[in-house]
Amino acid sequence: MTPAIPYSPRSDWIPPRYRRLGGYVMTHKTAEQWAERLLGKELNPRFLNCATQFINPRIKQHGVRIRTVGEEFCTHCMIVTQAAWFKGYVGMPASDIPQFVEGEREKRVKAFLQEQGVEDFEFQTWLD
Question: Do residues 102 and 123 make contact, with C-beta atoms less than 8 angstroms apart?
Answer without folding.
Answer: yes
